[in-house]
Amino acid sequence: MTSKKILIAAPRGWCAGVDRAVEIVERALDRYGAPVYVRKEIVHNGHVVTKLEGMGAVFVESEQDIPPGSICVLSAHGVAPTVYENAKARNLTVIDATCPLVTKVHVEARRFAKQGRTIFLIGHNGHEEVEGTSGQAPDQTIVLERPEDVAGLSVADPDNVAFISQTTLAVDDTKEVVDELRRRFPRIAGPTKDDICYASQNRQQAVKEIAQRADLVLVVGSGNSSNSNRLVEVARDEGSKAFLIEDETSIDPEWLETAQIIGISSGASTPEILVDRVVKYLADTGITAVEEVSVAIEDVHFPLPASVT
Fold this sequence. Notes:
The protein is of the alpha/beta class. It has helices at 16-32, 46-55, 81-89, 100-114, 128-134, 171-184, 198-211, 226-237, 253-257, 272-284, and strands at residues 5-10, 36-39, 57-60, 71-74, 93-96, 118-122, 141-144, 161-165, 216-220, 241-245, 261-266, 289-294.
């Protein structure tokens, strides 16, 4: 009998913002009928997008690709003010599915901009959330990814600067950048509450717990999911071998050969059914002992916009 074991991280999977965003698209389809157009992927998970496409959602890269007068859902990652302007010019009915925790960062960006500050946005260049946040004050925002980026910064007034961050970053990595910014700019302002969302922090902490015991950690999530990629990095930082998998079909059997304890988690945009499929796959190989490792209980719920209630 095998002595192998599965450790499942908790919390994992969908957060309140993702749950809200997906429900907004589903309700919009019920209320207005297909097609409902969605700017970008509503959340970064291919399985979720495919399912919604089957229900009648049409995903487009830009609001400019949507026929005038149509329904337009904005993704959970948030957008720049110019997107709303373009949508208005096309007479689109906009339903905003931006995560409220991303909206919080947008409010901070506008507040710092009104104070005339140069804003350092810690995040990944090109990510949709970063594009939306930097678009709140494009002329005053500088995107930073690593502590090394701080040394070369040049600003008009070093005493009038601020920092904000992408909500799905690794907590430890972000702290390194913030510490470097504080050393370089002692009077720098920051958010009153950490910008990294509760779900990202909880999932990272849970992965740390299982990675300390596991030989192998499998994170279920799509390749373009920032928070899922961060979970893989967190597990590796704890010394465990770790891989990002779309679903059970991505598992390389060779990974399992020497692993005695296998940890499983999933990104905040990953439906639980995909985790269930991974567990079943492992059970079919003879690994049936399962332990859930919980670090927090989540009971957050965000209300839906009036346009779909």
